Amino acid sequence: MMALLRDRxxxxxxxxxxxxxxxxxxxxxxxxxxxQYHALGGNGVxxxxxxxxxxxxxxxxxxx
Length: 64
Fold this sequence. Notes:
Layout: H1 2-19, H2 24-39, H3 44-54
Helix pairs in contact: 1-2, 1-3, 2-3
């Protein structure tokens, strides 16, 4: 289960960093994945990726 959660988180991390923004709805889903991963004993790698994602804007560049 941890491997699946980690993979899902990483795939979404790559998508959002490539696109340059991180919509609010996706943040909610990723927060749930993050919490479940850590509840299973996950490590700090995903925490680092989450912190990077949280710094992205919620809208595409050029939008409000």
